[in-house]
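Q: Hi! New to this. If I give you a protein sequence and the SMILES for magnesium ion, can you show me the bound structure?
A: Yes, paste them in.
Q: Okay, here:
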Amino acid sequence: MSWRGLGTLTRAELRRTRGALSAAGLGVLLGTASLTFFLGLGLGVRATLLEQVFPIDRVELVPAQSEVGLLALLGGRSAPPGVDEQTAEELRRLPAVEALYPKLMLRFPSMARGGKEVLGQELGTHEMLADGVDPELVEPPLRARFTDPWSAEGKPCVTDAECADRDYCERPSGAATGRCSRPVPALVSRYLVELFDHGVAPAHGLPAVAGELLSHAEVIPFTMTLGNSLLGRAPQGSERRVKLQVIGVSPRAIDLGVTVPLAVARRWNTEYAGAAAAARSSSVVVQLRRGGDASRVLEAAAARGLQPKDTRARDVSVLTAGIMALLSLVSGVILLVAGLNIAHTLRSLVAERRQELALYRALGASAALVRRWVLALALTVGASAGAAGVALAWLLSLLVDWRAAVDLPAFPFKPASFFAFPPWLLALGVGFGVLSALLGAARPAWRASRVDPAAVLGRQDG
Amino acid sequence: MTPPLVVARGLTRRYGEGAAQRSALEGLELELREGEAVLLFGPSGSGKSTLLALLGLLDRQYEGTLEVLGCSPRDATDEQLALLRNDSIGFVFQAFHLLGHLGALDNVCLPAVFSARLTPELARRRGLELLERLGLGGREGALPHELSGGQRQRVAVARALLLSPRLLLCDEPTGNLDSASGARLAELLAELHRDQATTLVIATHDERLAALATRRLLLVDGRLLQDAAA
Ligand SMILES: Nc1ncnc2c1ncn2[C@@H]1O[C@H](COP(=O)(O)OP(=O)(O)OP(=O)(O)O)[C@@H](O)[C@H]1O
Ligand SMILES: [Mg+2]
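A: Thanks. Here is the predicted structure of the protein with magnesium ion bound:
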């Protein structure tokens, strides 16, 4: 088998028949371009949704049939629903579980005000939601700054005025004196930041700088009033004010509200809602082992009355996967037509070249060489049209991203690019181009290898 | 004595199926030795081309036994047969079968495409030599349609000789030529046989080729009626 011969013949034929072969490749180009474009768009949008809007690398489990919301904060009589330490420990021992972190809602009313320093105007809410999470759950480098600032060595105090400039006097209800404390670090969600910058800030004529500030490791100080809100007072403890500062954006933060270190939430819950409210966590975040079987964990959780808090991520994946499948199907049809087109072109090529193929056979080409020759033509057409299609898809994506940046208004989670082109997608695009061309070429190649040199060359006409 | 180049025993080739089946060759007994120049005579349809296709390893659908250059076509792989055709067998056809889009030299060098034996440069050099020797010096760039019938057939002969075959098979090589070109080609083949000791098998109606023959075979209705030294 002469590979050099195959190369020589293929190059010669490509030069000779480039018109017809390019025309045949055009379909493959369009097919791979649309396949790559739509899959790239789907992946890009999905990545934005899953990484920014609904992260799913971990599963948060909450007690089934319970809405941990405002009413639960006010109820206070029955023990709030929660995950006790034993259940948490059982889940932690499941093989698929890498780590498990408790989360604790603040189970008493609170309010918040702040923002004057950075926004030039005070903003506040009469109803504040907050929870506490294990600092281990927070990604570095934020993790280092996300610690409970309270220390028994702090300077004794009664009012904030006795403490250093930004610090405050952490004096629990009923205590005669407190200790000066650094502001409690707080995390906010990307969702809240986007909502503020693209919703609240424009509506109030405020600078939309929250995302900007936090991305530069600035802090946003605010004060929280514990034990009282528009909807009522805490069953125990006395109303007091504490200082916090938002130190960053984290996917671990509560959507609407702030997230503080778990120890702080425990302390304040004990103070305003009783020891029982602090003992059980309101939910647990399960970090799955790489390749771990999530369904096992969900089963075990269900058996203990727990369910995933957020099914939006799954819904989003299912939805985007569905849309991508649909558009891929359309592209598949284009590629199918492209394959048929290639089949047609190669069939007439082989028919035209019967005498030539017979001559090649007589001069020393095996049937396999002739077959490979037709396949090599298809491979070249498919690969180059596929690569061109992928390149076209990429150029189109640049165009779309550019138009989107220029023409579309800023909206929450507007990504810099709507596309994602992982290497495997580019390979897939080219691969499908090659595949459709090769499938189209299969029959013509078989026919070409069946040309009977004795019958063709014996004819008297040249 | 060297072993024969070709041995055929009871060689039979049938075409068609069932009732429509008929033999193009029937029970052929034949041995060809190195250096022979065999003329294959016979009326139209007598099986000359059929025999040449079998000797040229282009056809494996026979009965009886056949050995060409030590190879039994029926038992060899397609790959082996292709290699042997490329390496050791040359073909000259009545219809020339040059590739119209290639110049004379490129046509001559075509067998080298399938050969690992000659680099493209060596093939070109040898091709030019052959064209020169066959009286086509300076015409290496000419396309087939720019050449006369006789010139085209000489290009085809040069192509058949490129890889120095041990067996040169010609099917009516003068059939499409005017008498002057035919005579010239007959001379050329005679010269080849004399100088290179190439083994020739030529199917023809052309008595002018008789001069070069060392042996004459007469086929009638697929049977070998006469096998005589010339
Ligand atoms: N592919 C084929 N299918 C069916 N019959 C065939 C085929 N090839 C040859 N034949 C038949 O076999 C017989 C021998 O044909 P062949 O071509 O060998 O004759 P020939 O001696 O070369 O004739 P000519 O002098 O006209 O070239 C003829 O009857 C022909 O019709
Ligand atoms: Mg014939």
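A: Residues A 458; B 48-49, 171 surround magnesium ion (ligand 2) (CB under 6 Å). Let me know if you'd like me to explain how to read the tokens.
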